[in-house]
Amino acid sequence: MIDTQEFLRALRADFGYRTPEGVERRLLDRWLGGTDCWFYRRLLGVILRGARLNRAGLYNRENWQDLSLDMWRAVEGCGGRLEVTGLEHLDALPGPAVIVANHMSMLETFTIPAVVLPFTHMTFVVKDSLMHVPVFRQVMLGVRPIVVTRDNPREDMKILMEEGQSVLAHGRSVVVFPQSTRNPVLLPGQFNSVAVKLAKRAEVPIVPLALKTDFQALGRLVKDVGKIHRDRTVHFAFGAPLRVEGNGRAQHQAVLHFIAAQYRSWGGEVEE
After folding, report:
1. How far is 245 from 66, CA to CA, in rounded Å?
2. Strands 17-18 and 82-85
3. Which tens digit of pLDDT belongs to each residue from 71-127?
4. Minimal CA–CA distance to 272: which of 209, 208, 186, 211?
5. Regarding beta strands 206-212 and 234-238, do their DSSP bridges make them parallel or antiparallel, or are they unpaired?
6. Under CATH, what is the fold of the domain 4-265?
7. Separation of alpha carbons 144 and 65, rounded Å
């Protein structure tokens, strides 16, 4: 099972993490980790603990990082593997940044903070429907996200520019998923340019983040509850920060190129 201090040491010294061979698993994980229900039971435990922390006014950066790390433990406890590279780029940031990533499953929302928060405080841009889910709403309130509708692009852009600049000015990085929906196939044409526009307006760098989180597949009936694929490694790769110049098209294309190249290297499907 992941030790918090050893995990943080690996992030800061090695600028990455890889699940070790023969990782130690708790007794209950060894007994029940082969069932998908056990993974979702662990996920529910993280949600409930996060909601309690927020109601008690204790949802701070340290506790959020620990909650996220519990999801890493859940993945490994169920027989999965995780790998993250490129954290030297976060370590070199002089301040907050806009982090732009592809969007595959609910899992990345829970696991990204564990590797970002040790380097920079952060929040997410999320759709408002998440703020109406019982219990989970309390967790999201603790994150203090930027909430958009996904129904009114003009209003969403206004919200993102105003609130995003304020968040960045107060030292928190912003994680943006520029796709309209989660998809196991990478479709670069679905990436809008809001992240680049925000980075330019706030005069902060943009950091590409390629990820592959189909360890937790999308569900057929309930999108957030899909099959657990223990043979699929959870991947995160951070790219070098980019300063947005001119209209930002070159930086937007550079982000797409980085994410697509990484995704292909992991065996993912990219549809041009």
Report:
1. 36
2. antiparallel
3. 999 999 999 999 999 999 999 999 999 999 998 888 999 999 999 999 999 999 988
4. 186
5. antiparallel
6. Glycerol-3-phosphate (1)-acyltransferase (3.40.1130)
7. 14
